[in-house]
Amino acid sequence: MTQGTHPAASAEAAPSTEPAAGPVETAEAADAVQSRGPEEFRARRERFIQAMGNGVAVLSAAPELVKSRDTEVIYRQNSDFFYLTGFLEPGAVAVLTPHDAAHRFTLFVRPRDPERETWTGKRAGVEGARERYGADAAYPAEELDERLKELVEPADALWYAVRADDGPMDARMLRLLAGFRGSRPRAGKGPWDLRDPAQLLDRMRLIKEPGELALMRQAAELAARGHLAAMRAGRPGVGEWEIQALLDQTFRSHSATSGTSFPAIVGSGANGTVLHYVSNQRRIEEGDLVLVDVGAEVGFYCSDITRTFPASGRFTAPQRAVYDVVLRALHAAIQAVRPGAPVKEVHEAARGVLVQGMIDLGLLEGEPEKLIEEEKFKRFFMHNTSHWLGLDVHDPGPYTEPGGEPVALRPGMVLTVEPGLYVPEDAEDVPAELRGIGIRLEDDVLVTEDGHEILTRAVPVDPDEVERICSGG
Predict the structure, then answer these.
(1) What are 71's strand-pairing partners?
(2) Angle formed at CA 420 by CA 466 and CA 301, multiple of 5 degrees
(3) Helices marked H in 208-280
(4) For this structure, is 293 an active site residue?
(5) N or C: less crowded end of the chain, CB within 10 Å?
(6) Catalytic residue among 42, 217, 225, 383
């Protein structure tokens, strides 16, 4: 899935036509992988606590969202909250207090309520927060205001992320800070600073642990199954919405805990030139290209793959010419993924190939360096080549260091590589046969000790292999 604000990276490897052997985890097995016990989350909390010094961190669960009237959006936990606690329910607050061993990790949660649980399912409750999630102390959520001041008071800094989606919690924390501001001159206690936990968590989450990578590999395999199914089903006469339904069915049939990691993009014909086209309402026509950008989510971890294929089974000559340019850019960018390389080199590698390709195709005229300097290429390639991937499709993490230098790639980082070319159908100043062609290719790439590993090549990018699959091979 494209992201317009960050640089990027890409991938290359021998194509294969089928997913890796062995089934994707069942729902029960995926749950077991996700719930590896409290030790994994405790280790993360300890790293975070050590990094925040004499501070206290307060983190809140994602709020429940209403779709319309009394119909709620399917709940998904806040990624930072999950990363440090593993706790899945709404209405919870975690407090990390390094100065108090009895409350080093405190959870405030919704208490057990048999009547409410009849409607919405069982809750962990106070006991479950301690026994299943490793909380040193746990209390009903209603006691947060009563206990929070005492937990925070010994700290020099309060680590709390002000979030637009949780106004009541933001207001509670601002009132707390205002209270300390008034009492500190006499009491001599209370935090001076409000600091964003993202300062620490974004960099922690950049480097994936082995358990996280195991889930990401499952998500990649599952996404590959979906893409192969889409290639085989995406024929003239089929609705884009039918491909979207097939993708969701493929993911969920292999694991009840899986779904798409973001709304599927299924763009046929000129819809493939719209970067985040998600209405998926057109019927595929003869001669169309179909751009499918979708990922699976397994145990909260995401994959993100884009493939573009010919609905009629064969690329036309103009389609193949554009496809070959994007494929060369993908290979070049992936080769730039290696430990120590600045992340911006991945984007630059893809951009250089694409700009030369635009010249060769007759989309642009001039010297490549000048076209890059003047950003003329952005008419046909307007996004960056990569984004971080993990618990979120657009995972957090810096791309530029405080001094302005690009972040260097390190083993354990996972990023997408997604070059593309998009020729508007109304572009009258370009060759007519190229108008309305939109092609993007995207892989998920892990930085390893000696280079990179492409997590998503179970679905091929080689055009001959793509045609074979689309033709029923």
Answers:
(1) 68
(2) 80
(3) 210-233, 240-254
(4) yes
(5) C
(6) 383
CA 137 to chain centre: 32
Q: Are strands 157-159 and 55-60 parallel, antiparallel or unpaired?
A: parallel
Do 55-155+162-195 and 207-470 have matching folds? Answer: no
365 is catalytic: no
Using CA atoms, how far residue 466 sits from 17, 23, 349, in Å, is 8, 23, 24
> What is the tens place of the pLDDT at every residue in 441-455?
999 999 999 999 999
Which helix or strand (DSSP H or E) is residue 309 part of? strand 305-310
Contact 34, 41 (CB under 8 A): no
- Per-position DSSP letters for 40-63, written without gaps between them: HHHHHHHHHHHHH-SEEEEEEPPP
Q: Which residues of 307-327 are buried (b: 16+ CB within 10 A; e: fewer)?
A: bbbbbbbebeebbebbbbbbb
Rounded-to-integer distance, Cα 66 and Cα 89, Å: 16
pLDDT in tens, 18-34: 443 344 444 433 454 44
Q: Could you tell me the CATH superfamily of domain 55-155+162-195? A: Creatinase/prolidase N-terminal domain (3.40.350.10)
Please name the fold of domain 207-470. Answer: Creatine Amidinohydrolase (3.90.230)
Encoding tokens for residue 23?
């089934």
**Which residue in 304, 395, 444, 467 is the catalytic one?**
304
CA dist 309 and 287 (Å) reads 10
The answer to whether 417 and 350 are in contact (CB under 8 A) is: yes
In angstroms, what CA-CA distances link 332 with 8, 13, 60, 219? 12, 11, 42, 25
Extents of the domains making up the chain? 55-155+162-195, 207-470
Between the CA of residue 86 and those of 81, 107, 286, 388, 436, what are the distances in Å? 7, 11, 48, 21, 45
189 touches 108 (CB < 8 A): no
pLDDT digits 0-9 by tens, 251-305: 998 875 668 999 999 999 999 999 999 999 999 999 999 999 999 999 999 999 9
Between residues 1 and 418, the one the model is more confident about: 418
Active-site residue, from 45, 205, 217, 387: 387
Q: Is residue 252 annotated as a catalytic residue, yes or no?
A: no
- Residues 377, 355: contact at Cβ < 8 Å? yes
CB 437 within 8 A of CB 362: no
Q: Is the pTM of this model over 0.90?
A: yes
